[in-house]
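Consider the tokenized backbone below.
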């Protein structure tokens, strides 16, 4: 059966429920992937500049071979002994500070964040959670309360434990050393203590991905970490998007930001497409969690998933994909800066390693977001065979987060196409002409 776009939309609503999100005004039917490329049902080829789930490339041969062999040998849960879960945790924690020495493996980042919050409650005896107002940390009943944009209409009253702080914004709220952010967190800690809730934890993505990865200096999280520890709380770093070498400068974003979290959560890219998540912490914190909560995950840490996760780490380390992220990311940002000189609509270029983008502004003096323009650019790029998206409170920052095997030749395809699309969209919308033309 060959479904049309309308068939897909109707059948998805009928079989999976209404309001399922899709990318682009004209959704894509993807049937195959390889490396940094995807193909649709009509045979059209797309450059994947978005997906971090296939972290070491779509259908990575080493991962595929390892998983296939393990599937033919054994797959079970961790109530039976098997070596792979222990081997993986040792290999994973060897990339971190010695303080982070133990882990729980889950199936998703949402589960990981839910566990991390319970760890904070177990260690502090309190329930107050602080997050930014433009973040996303998952979709369990508790974790879904942590994002204003995605917050559900119901939630068992769990929202009473959550306090929001204004997200970092390097354009509109300059804070080069992180002290203003730390002060805002301190205010919410005081409020939680005064209203009787008590302060348990601050949970952040250390590179603030969903907040449009504002420009921050290295060690930016040090001031807020000091505030959190002084108040007796735990610092949770959600590295679902920022980890596994993507920063190009460090294996983990929290290392770049100058802190060692009490708890670190992982997800999307861990096993190149298999559903694997994780919580990494200190042995004391994990022991306390095991005492306070009965926890078992049937599929977490199974041999096949661990095999895939080990293969991902091997690919990252053996092929120096951290170094590749640095080289490719530097080239990408240089191309964007050159484009910024050409187009007034590009207000700010930012990123690190294999995440880069630009915030589009209608007016650089007022920082007025170019949201409609950005949406048009994304949809035009999709029709020209380049896939990426936007994010941030204003949905005007290009989010480009490709697989770690992305090369400089792929950057040039992306940027050449983006250059053409920006000029075309400016003309169509009758916006200010390219700055290089003196308009």
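A designed sequence for it:
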């Amino acid at each position: 059966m060959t479904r049309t776009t309308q068939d897909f939309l109707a059948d998805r609503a009928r079989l999976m429920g209404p309001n399922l999100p899709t990318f682009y005004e004209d959704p894509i039917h993807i049937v195959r992937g390889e490396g940094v490329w995807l193909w649709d049902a009509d045979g059209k080829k797309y450059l994947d500049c978005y997906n971090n789930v296939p972290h070491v490339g779509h259908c990575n041969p080493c991962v595929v071979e390892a998983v296939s062999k393990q599937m033919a040998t054994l797959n079970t849960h961790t109530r039976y002994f098997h070596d792979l879960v222990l081997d993986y945790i040792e290999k994973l924690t060897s990339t971190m500070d010695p303080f982070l020495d133990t882990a729980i493996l889950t199936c998703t980042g949402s589960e990981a964040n839910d566990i991390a919050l319970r760890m904070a409650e177990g260690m502090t005896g309190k329930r107050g959670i602080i997050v930014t107002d433009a973040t996303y940390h998952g979709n369990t009943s508790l974790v879904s309360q942590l994002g204003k944009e995605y917050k559900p209409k119901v939630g068992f009253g769990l929202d009473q434990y959550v306090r929001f702080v204004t997200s970092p914004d390097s354009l509109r709220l300059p804070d080069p050393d992180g002290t203003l952010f730390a002060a805002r967190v301190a205010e919410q800690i005081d409020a939680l203590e005064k209203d009787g809730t008590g302060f348990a934890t601050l949970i952040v993505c250390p590179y603030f991905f969903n907040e449009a990865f504002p420009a921050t200096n290295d060690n930016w999280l040090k001031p807020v970490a000091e505030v959190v520890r002084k108040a007796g709380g735990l610092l949770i770093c959600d590295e679902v998007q920022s980890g596994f070498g993507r920063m190009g400068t460090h294996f983990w974003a929290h290392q770049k930001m100058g802190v060692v979290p009490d708890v670190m959560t992982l997800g999307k890219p861990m096993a190149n497409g298999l559903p694997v998540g994780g919580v990494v912490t200190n042995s004391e914190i994990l022991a306390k969690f095991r005492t306070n909560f009965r926890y078992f995950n049937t599929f977490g840490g199974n041999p096949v998933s661990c095999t895939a996760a080990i293969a991902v780490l091997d690919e990252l380390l053996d092929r120096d994909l951290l170094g590749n992220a640095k080289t490719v990311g530097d080239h990408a940002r240089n191309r964007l800066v050159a484009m910024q000189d050409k187009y007034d609509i590009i207000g700010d270029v930012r990123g690190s390693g294999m995440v880069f983008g630009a915030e589009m502004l209608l007016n650089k003096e007022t920082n007025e977001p170019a949201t409609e323009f950005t949406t048009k650019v994304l949809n035009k790029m999709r029709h020209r065979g380049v896939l990426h998206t936007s994010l941030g409170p204003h949905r005007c920052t290009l989010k480009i987060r490709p697989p770690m095997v992305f090369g400089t030749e792929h950057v040039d395809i992306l940027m050449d196409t983006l250059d053409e699309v920006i000029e075309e969209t400016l003309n169509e919308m009758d916006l200010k002409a390219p700055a290089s033309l003196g308009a």
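The chain has two domains: 5-56+320-437, 61-318.
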